Amino acid sequence: MSQNQVIVLQAGYSYKDANEANAMRANCSCTLISCRDGTNIIVDTLTAWDGDQLKSLLAAQGLQPADINVVVCTHGHSDHIGCNYLFQEARLHIVGSCASNRDLYFEHAGALDAHGEVLVEETPGHTLSCVSVIVHNTKLNGTVGICGDLFERREDIDDAQIWKAAGSEDEKRQAQERHRLAELCEHIVPGHGQMFALNAELRRKLRTCVELRTT
Questions:
Q1: What value, to the nearest 5°, has the Cα angle with vertex 187 and ends 163 and 203?
Q2: pLDDT grade, residue 214 (50/70/90)?
Q3: Which residues of 2-40 are buried (b: 16+ CB within 10 A; e: fewer)?
Q4: CA nearest 190: which of 21, 62, 30?
Q5: pLDDT, tens digit, for every residue of 1-56?
Q6: SS3 of 121, please?
Q7: Which helix or strand (DSSP H or E) is residue 51 part of?
Q8: Whether 174 contacts 168, CB under 8 Å
Q9: Residue 103: helix, strand or coil by DSSP?
Q10: How far apart, in whole angstroms, are the C-alpha atoms of residue 113 and residue 190?
Q11: Do residues 151 and 178 make contact, with C-beta atoms less than 8 angstroms apart?
């Protein structure tokens, strides 16, 4: 394999529940990174009730949970960490800014792959410990940002109330990180929507959002 492959196993969603007042239904985007050095990374693992579904999604890619080498959860909310228990053979679990292996907790530094092309970066905002996974040299011919709830979905670039209503512990920092990732990446995998491509107009809107918050 000459390039890294980013596969969205299941696109996330979030919407108000029609039958329950003040309630939502939500699940995260779950993404597989097949690195060109053979490392398999899963980013965000759905809810605790999705174990069979996630095993089926992996099987469709010819994989079992034991084939996953690294687990990254962009933050610690329950719809992003629920099936971490499937991946007990993984050498590394990262949840937000916390890295562990079994009962050993430590500070992770460096790339997740041997070529230095898959990186974890802090992207605080939705929570202060949020991270994103940045994948360079992909089959999409550009850099992909797997961003968790830094972006809810593509539409929140046009309507900032979408990401703000989803919760933000630091709206100013989140707006800055959204703009930074948009300048760095060609594609974004958001926390609760389909992967989308960036263009000059979307980057302009994100830049304007930052400028408005600093004036």
A1: 60
A2: low
A3: ebbbbebbbbbebeeeeeeeeeeebbbbbbbbbbbeebb
A4: 30
A5: 799 999 999 999 999 888 888 888 999 999 999 999 999 999 999 999 999 999 99
A6: strand
A7: helix 51-59
A8: yes
A9: coil
A10: 22
A11: yes
Please give the structure tokens belonging to residue 43: 């980013």
Helical packing angle, 200-214 and 171-184, nearest 10°: 150
Q: What is each CA distance from 45 to 2, 62, 79, 103, 203, in whole angstroms?
A: 27, 18, 7, 20, 29
The CA distances from residue 127 to 39, 213, 214, in Å, are 28, 19, 21
Helix residue ranges per DSSP H, 62-104 = 78-81
Opening angle at CA 126, ends 175 and 13, nearest 5: 105
Beta bridge partners of 39: none
- CA-closest candidate to residue 95, choices 70, 111, 115, 75: 75
Mean pLDDT of 60-89: 98
Say if CB 36 and CB 42 are below 8 A apart: no
Question: What does the pLDDT read at residue 20?
Answer: 83
Q: What is the DSSP string of 131-184?
A: EEEEE-SBTTSS-EEEEETTSS-GGGGT-THHHHHT--S-HHHHHHHHHHHHHH
pLDDT of 215 higher than 70: no
